[in-house]
C-alpha cells in the first residue's frame, strides 16, 4: 500500500481478536508488493482474497470467500482514495460508526462508489453464502480529470461533494466484461501492471458514462420533456430485461405510454442510437460475456442472445469487435 497507509487501515473481528481471516487480510493490505493473496483456512471456510497494488493511487481487491459460521469484520479506514465495488456473489450490509450511524447495502449484480475515509465500518457475512466481488481503489483526481474532459463540472460538484456513499446501481454487461478481463488477466509482472492500469481507467470511464454522464444527458436533453425522458429510460430497462425477445416498437411504445415517433426520436437523442441498434449492441455484449466468462460455444451464445442465423451473428460480432466470434473464442 502507499506510504503511511498501513497504520491507518485495520481489519478486525470485534468478537475474536485472533481471527485468522483478519490477520491474513491485514497482512496483504499492508504490504508494498505488487500482488498478494490470502487463502481462507479450511477450518474457517474456503476461498481467497487477492490484493494487487497497480500503483500507490490504484489498487484492486478480488474476493471469493465462503465461511462455515457467521463472520463479522470491521474496517478502520483512513484512506483518501475512493472505492468502486462490484458484488458478484451474495449481497451484504455494512454499518458505518458515528453520530449518526449509517447503514448501506449492496445486492448481487450491483455496484457502488464511496469514499474510503469513513472511519470504522462493520459488516457481517452469513454462513454458507459465497461472497464474490471486486473492489477498485483510485485517486479522486482520475474522476476529476474525466469530468473536466467531458466538461461536466456541475455534475462533479453535485454528485461528489459532501457525501461518502455516492452511487448504487446495477452492473451492466459492458462493466461485467471489463471485470471478467481484470479478474482473469493472463499477463504477469510489469505487463500485468500496465494491462490492469488500462483496465481500471476503462472501467471508471464506462462506469461514469453509464451513471453520472447518463444523468446529465437526461437533464440536458432540452427537447425531450421530463415525462418523455422518464418513459424512455423505462423503455431502455424493458429492452435490457428482454434482449432475447424484445417487444416490437409498437408494443414498447404502448408499454411506456408514448407514441412510436416520440419513442424512436427520443430514444436516439438520449442514448445515441436507434432502438434496433441498441438491441443489437447489447446482445453482442451479452454474447461476448457468455463466450468469455461462461465458456459457451459460439453457437450456444448466439442462440441464447436471440440469433438463429449464425452468419448474421458473426457479421455483427466482427463489425463490433473486429474479429470473428470463432477466432475470439479460440484466443480466450
UniProtKB/TrEMBL annotation:
Source superkingdom: Bacteria
Keyword DNA-binding: yes
Molecular function terms from GO: DNA-binding transcription factor activity; sequence-specific DNA binding
Keyword Membrane: no
Stretches assigned to the HTH araC/xylS-type domain: 233-331
UniProt keyword list: DNA-binding, Transcription, Transcription regulation
Designated name of the protein: HTH-type transcriptional activator RhaR
Biological classification of the source: Bacteria, Bacillati, Bacillota, Negativicutes, Selenomonadales
